[in-house]
Specification:
alpha+beta; Immunoglobulin-like; about 25% helix; 4 domains; 6-stranded antiparallel beta sheet; Jelly Rolls; about 800 residues
Length: about 800
């Protein structure tokens, strides 16, 4: 691989078509072609790419989990990407060999110096395919590939060549490295995983399944959050994995702030190098029990914590002002970071513009004049909607961004009522009027249909940015509707809070929300709001909650905690056309929640369909999904663990959930799997095709209609359980015990359960002693004892019931 080349490539400023219809969905939406993409299409129609034979080789891409050659990532500004690569293919006999070429971006292929394929669809994050023929020689042919993409924030950038014939081809890497060395690096990059995944003290350890035969140098760096990628790595260390060892200590992790950290690794032997990106979490902060403190006291504690430890983003500046801190170099650096994002119109700059307007609206008299002048210029020069000219890649179209852009336009217009906004040419009064009209449309939508990003630990904090600012700085209907929706969000957070962590089924989730719940910013919202949980460096919106006047309703607090021996159930809907019917069962020990409905068989962008949580450990969690990509450490949407390549049909009745998968005829990954965070549990057993887990007196068990196998090596070691096949049904059951014989009684009960899938794979039936027989039909949904069981509540207001819990 040659080095990746990046070029800022914005195209000409233009208006964009306003396609926001306020019917928000979970997934990519067609937004039209941005100026950067129009510019690259114009360029490729006339340009010629000249072959580069002697580019610098900076690393190897070796086969492993990912069948693609992939460089996907996130770029906050329009960035033209390119990379040269080379290899050698050896055919059994000389001739033309057919291949399927798939790509996101564009690809040129040269064989022995001759251009044989040029495929440049450049469709935004949509794979395109074609067939090509490569003229290969029996003695070996030199292959050079030029891959390109136009990054508009999150960019899928990859290509994949699949041989369509039956011939066996050999690959030879054209570098001065032995096959033994290459095999060592391949094995290490494929096997590597952190131990433990969640680091509470001490050093980070990387482990491998089998030892290397010689010393390998490992360069390890931790990147800052995706919003701070222009900053230096938080950690950059070098270690050596000694020959015949399977463990290596990576120093420096003890100096990291708490967080879910992307870890870039480079394995090298001499000049031969392979790169890999994985992740791990640091969680040193102890949980706080502040239930005996008044809300205002909890808020003050959070403000002080964020003023000292918050990420260097706009929210920390709010905390510093609220805590009475002086304007110091830290405050100035935060403002500099914020203004750079706004002035460059980076994607997600709307997330920091609203907190900046909180600063100017609440603390203007305390901000030095030089900073204030720079802030005013940025606010008046920003692009507030697609009807204002621009050539950025800011994402205007999703539920959370629409809210933040409209809130920013409304609040900026009110604060600068008599000024002229440079990009639109409007006065502040006009901006405020437009912002208010658009906010009313947004509220109309979510008040009627709920949220497409329900319960999302990633995006509720972003909703809070807009809603808290509107509740604090707005007036009239805007303020009333903001407070009403804040109340609804807190009720849902309370319902799905377990062990101090807001969790459960989510409309949008990433790996970090699933694997490190206490480290999401939604966790400290629950800590401050309900009095139990964690604080962390998240400051997107929490400082606005902690320094503002909003108080969660009593209903939310009552939903957050369940008395021992009792259980609650909740049913409600979220999303347009009842896209998500949400079912919850929760006791003092364990929680099961599911998304019923959806589009079974469709691609599950980031929907977290079913979730099991335990109160006694913040990391004790399990779920089932169909992988959305090859790589266990990948970041696609859906990814390996977050979302679903193929959505299941789901049903939940009280303490039991059923999932029925039909992966289709051409599934890229032909298995479904369960995630079990084994280090967080007291017991994890695979017994009679049941995965049985216990934490304290909370229990859960999962089984499938296919044979379940435990993954013993690689990234899935001791956390992943797979069930093969296109058609597969899963059953999840939760419960709690009364004494030290209860866990055995729970296992005895499991032995009475029968789970069967129909011959055509369209129906799943579960029978269990003392409970109704559950049947989940692919088309008709859930039935109890053969009678259809309609979802009990099709409104946004949760139907909550409290009753005595079944115990073992």
């Amino acid at each position: 691989m040659g080095p990746a080349r990046e070029l800022y490539y914005p195209g000409e400023p233009a208006l964009a078509e306003d396609r926001v219809n306020y019917r928000f969905v979970n997934g990519f939406v067609d937004i039209g072609d941005l100026p950067c993409r129009k510019a690259i299409w114009k360029d490729i129609s006339v340009r010629t790419v000249e072959l580069e034979k002697d580019f610098d080789v900076i690393g190897l891409n070796l086969p492993g989990f990912n069948r693609r050659v992939e460089f996907s990532g996130f770029w906050h500004r329009p960035t033209r990407l390119s990379r040269w690569l080379k290899t050698k293919l050896v055919a059994p006999v000389s001739g033309n060999y057919p291949f399927k070429l798939a790509t996101c971006g564009g690809v040129h292929i040269w064989v022995d110096g001759i251009l044989v394929a040029r495929f440049e669809p450049f469709r935004r994050n949509k794979e395109s395919t074609t067939e090509v023929e490569l003229p290969l020689r029996a003695g070996g042919s030199d292959i050079v590939i030029f891959t390109e993409e136009m990054a508009e924030r999150d960019a899928l950038w990859y290509f994949e060549l699949t041989c369509l014939g039956d011939s066996e081809l050999r690959t030879i890497l054209p570098v001065p490295a032995s096959e033994d060395h290459i095999q060592v690096l391949k094995d290490l990059a494929t096997q590597v995983r952190p131990q433990p995944m969640h680091l509470k003290k001490g050093q980070l350890v990387l482990v491998f399944d089998k030892p290397a035969s010689l010393d390998v140098t490992i360069q390890a760096s931790v990147l800052p959050s995706v919003h701070m990628r222009d900053k230096q790595p938080l950690m950059n260390e070098k270690s050596v994995l000694k020959a015949h060892e399977t463990r290596v200590v990576i120093p420096g992790a003890d100096r990291l702030p708490d967080g879910y950290h992307p870890l870039k690794l480079s394995f090298s032997i001499g000049d031969t190098k392979v790169q890999r990106e994985i992740a791990f979490a640091t969680l040193c902060e102890e949980p706080r029990d502040m239930r005996n403190l008044a809300l205002e006291t909890r808020k003050k504690i959070a403000v002080e914590y964020m003023a000292d430890h918050g990420e260097m983003r706009a929210g920390r500046a709010i905390a510093m002002m609220a805590a009475g801190r002086p304007v110091d170099p830290v405050f100035r650096e935060i403002i500099s970071n914020t203004l750079a994002a706004i002035n460059e119109r980076r994607d997600c700059s709307d997330f920091v513009l609203v907190p900046l307007l909180w600063l100017t609206g609440c603390y203007r008299e305390r901000i030095p004049s030089d900073l204030l002048e720079a802030i005013d210029r940025s606010i008046l020069g920003y692009r507030y909607w697609v009807d204002e000219p621009g050539n950025d890649v800011m994402w205007f179209w999703s539920e959370n961004h629409v809210l933040c852009f409209h809130a920013a336009q409304y609040l900026a217009g009110r604060q600068y009522a008599g000024a002229v906004f440079a990009t639109s040419g409007r006065t502040g009064q006009e901006q405020a009027r437009l912002g208010e009209e658009r906010l009313m449309k947004w509220f109309d939508s979510v008040e009627q249909h709920g949220l497409a990003e329900w319960n999302s630990a990633a995006y509720y904090p972003i909703d809070f940015i807009g809603l808290l600012a509107l509740q604090h700085l707005g007036d009239g209907e805007i303020r009333r509707r903001s407070e009403q929706l804040l109340d609804r969000l807190f009720v849902m957070i309370g319902l799905h809070k377990s062990g101090g962590v807001p969790a459960g089924t989510m409309g949008r989730a990433y790996d970090k929300e699933l694997r490190a719940g206490p480290l999401t910013e939604l966790a400290p919202f629950a800590t401050v709001g309900f009095g139990l949980g964690w604080l962390n460096d998240g400051v997107a919106a929490l400082p606005m909650f902690a320094s503002g006047g909003y108080s969660p309703p009593g209903e939310a607090l009552r939903a957050a905690f369940v008395e021992p021996g009792m259980a609650i159930s909740a049913h409600y809907v979220q999303g347009h056309d009842h896209a998500a019917k949400l079912a919850l069962y929760k006791t003092s020990q364990v929680q099961l929640s599911s998304m019923v409905g959806g589009q079974p068989g469709g691609r599950g962008h980031q929907q977290h369909v079913v979730d099991v949580r335990f109160t006694a450990n913040e990391l004790a969690r399990a779920w089932v999904n169909h992988p959305g990509e090859d790589d266990p450490w990948g970041n696609q949407r859906p990814s390996y663990w977050a979302g679903n390549g193929s959505l299941p049909r789901t049903g939940q009745h009280e303490d039991t959930a059923l999932l029925l998968f039909d992966l289709g005829d051409n599934a890229r990954i032909n298995f479904t799997h369960a995630y079990v965070e084994s280090t967080a549990f007291d017991d994890v057993l695979l017994k009679d095709n049941w995965i049985i887990i216990r934490k304290d007196s909370g229990y859960a068990a999962m089984t499938a209609t296919q044979a379940i196998s435990k993954i013993e090596d690689g990234p899935g070691a001791n956390i992943e359980y797979r069930a093969p096949g296109r058609h597969c049904g899963w059953m999840i059951i939760v419960g709690e015990g009364r004494d030290n014989t209860s866990f055995e009684a729970f296992q005895t009960h499991l032995a009475t359960i029968r789970l069967q899938v129909s011959d055509d794979g369209k129906s799943l039936t579960a029978s269990r002693s003392g409970k109704p027989t559950l049947t989940l039909d692919w088309n008709d949904g859930l039935a109890l004892n053969g009678t259809s069981h309609p979802f009990p509540n099709l409104t946004l207001q949760p139907l909550i019931k409290t009753f005595v819990a079944d115990t073992y």
